[in-house]
Amino acid sequence: MQENEFDTRAYLFNTGNYFQSYDFLGCHKLAKGYSFTVWAPHAKEVYLVGDFNDWQRDLPLQKYGQTGMWRIETTLPKRKQLYKYGIVNQESNYQLKIDPFALEYEKKPGNSSVVVTLPHKEWHDFGWLKKRKQNDITVKPLNIYEVHAGSWKIHGEEEYYSYSELAKELVFYVKKMGYTHVEFMPLMEHLLDASWGYQLMGYFAPSSRFGDLLGFLRMIDAFHQNGIGVIMDWVPGHFIKNTDALALFDGTACFEYADPVQANNVRWGSWNFDVGKAQVQSFLISSAMFWLDFCHLDGLRVDAVSNLLYLDYDEGKEGTKNAEGTNLKTEGIAFIRKLNQTIKKYHPDVLMIAEESSAFPQVTDQVENGGLGFTYKWNMGWMNDVLKFFATDPLFRNGQLNLLTFSFVYMFDEKFVLALSHDEVVHGKKSLMHKMPGDRYNQFANLRTLFTYMLGHPGKKLLFMGSEWGQFLEWRYWSSLEWVDLNDEMNRKMQHFTQQLNEFYRNEPALWQQDHSPLGIDVFDADDPKAETLGFMRRGVEEDDVVIFALNLVPVEKQHFILPVPYPGVYEEAINTEMLEYGGTWTKGQGEFITRGQPYRGQPDSIEVILPAESALVIKLKKRSTNTSE
Question: How far apart are CA 303 and CA 283, in angstroms?
Fold first, then answer.
């Protein structure tokens, strides 16, 4: 690299405006040997230590002007050897530190950086990327399967599936089940399994548990070649406290806040990034760009956005105010907007999804309109209300229907993902299946009804692994999913039901074309909280593209149940959750329904159906007519 080119990149990094920082910081191959560059602005001395020099302080880095960068070129290191930086702070204390820009780390419990550079990968996903650019995902199906790679399947105790094994088995499974995307809980390098990947150490390195960067890239390519998008959780708010990682990197607060109160994240036992610092912005946005650009990911789900929005979000910070007297973290809001604007500039077709639990406005509105610029936001309110309702015994659901209908009031305030995620099936919360009331038969009936309601509700979808077949045990990060469940007929039928539901979703434009428009739904009656049923209709762009949902929320069959419909003609049963093939008792469906010629609940016509106990019916228009006698 030419000196003036290095100067330019260092200047942009220090002003918060270099977003491919991994191309000059960290370890890079030279014609002979390697270069190592690290940002440690207040270090007194910096050394390169590793396997190649017996971890001795005999390879000093040279400080590069006033940039805060330290740099060395050497032929001593060999590929795959371990290294760290030995940093002497202003008090002359010596501390070994990881390379923040390392592309690989040794397997836990060690955390040394590994001498590797960006691999050459011949991609085969041109068709996928071209299609991604041409399609607006907001008017396309988005049905996400959330995965924890360390526990989807394992060979034995901590014998993880490799990236290459996941590229075969997981790709096959996700495709077979009909999901459009997979979302991985963080696959960046982390030490503590119990953190599930949310206590990150390496922001440019996939976890060595499963293989190296090239193996990771090949897995992404395999998903894309099979028509499946890949999203990954990403954590820009906080990082691990380990003293040999980013914390007090050069003896001073380089990555975290200088104010220890703001730096300390009590809730998660970590350090908060100082996202108002220019170099931290370059570091984090470069990390996001690395995964989206170099690794071809289709999106990032940004973890704990509320921690970036509010000064008082954490424990012990209640009442904290900014200079304007509010609890908003102004530098965090500015960072989020800068992040999303940058991503959209380079990759306007990728997904940026906020995990945000407050009522902060305009999360998914464009930055130019005063929004945060995310593509989607997880609908945490919907999730809490819906699970509370379905966990209630049907005998006590009277008066509770508002838990299912309240989301209709705000469903277009943001672009939402309806997420039944890992957070809802861990820490004693029980699995989705175990939350359902009643005996085993009724638990499955309720779960099928819940999934059908989720299918019909406006918003994109996300389901955590194992829930698709009704795993009874809650999720355990240290153990494989209970695949043995599928030896049981009821679990197999539940898995088949979810597969059929996913296929129906992908094939029905009414369920996603107008997800974010009031034109996409008619709710028949949501005013009576004591009601035992719920009905609504989804609409596509085409006038005749309508799908009608009827939910029976109690274990009593509803004979002669009247459903409003928009047109006279013939309708047909598309899904009956009580069919025997799904785990119910019905051996024969209801077939077709001819309109009655009588308006009902604001619609011009109606049909009569039998609504099975604790079930959902999904009905489609088959043939429109002006003659109700057909």
Answer: 17
Mean confidence (pLDDT) of the chain: 96
Whole-angstrom Cα distance, residue 159 to residue 149? 12
CATH of the domain at 567: 2.60.40.1180
Are both 225 and 105 inside the same structural domain? no
DSSP state of 113: E
Q: Which of 169, 129, 132 is nearest to 149 (CA)?
A: 169
DSSP state, residue 449: H
Is residue 3's pLDDT more than 80?
no
Question: Measured between alpha carbons, how far is 459 from 418 in angstroms, rounded to an integer?
Answer: 6
Catalytic option among 233, 355, 385, 614: 355
Q: How many residues does the chain have?
A: 630
Q: What is the pLDDT of residues 134-188, one digit of tens each?
A: 999 999 999 999 999 999 999 976 689 999 999 999 999 999 999 999 999 999 9
Question: Is residue 355 annotated as part of the catalytic site, yes or no?
Answer: yes
Residue 333 — left, alpha, or beta (φ > 0 → left; ψ -120 to 50 → alpha)?
alpha
Structure-token match 């619609």, residue found:
603
Nearest-angstrom CA–CA distance, 564 and 533: 13
**Is 189 designated active site?**
no
* Rg of the chain on CA atoms, in Å: 27
Of 383, 375, 413, nearest in space to 516 by CA = 413
For the chain, give percent helix, strand, coil, nearest 5: 30, 25, 45
Where a domain ends, among 351, 376, 401?
Answer: 376
Tell me the backbone φ, ψ of residue 526, rounded to 5 degrees.
Answer: -130, 20
User: Which residues constitute the domain of residue 27?
Assistant: 3-114
CA-closest candidate to residue 234, choices 162, 167, 298: 298
Question: Would you place residue 530 in the very low, low, confident or very high pLDDT band (cuts 50, 70, 90)?
Answer: confident
Question: Alpha helix (H) ranges present in 371-507?
Answer: 380-390, 402-405, 407-410, 432-435, 440-456, 489-507
- Of the candidates 298, 303, 515, 605, the residue annotated as catalytic is 303
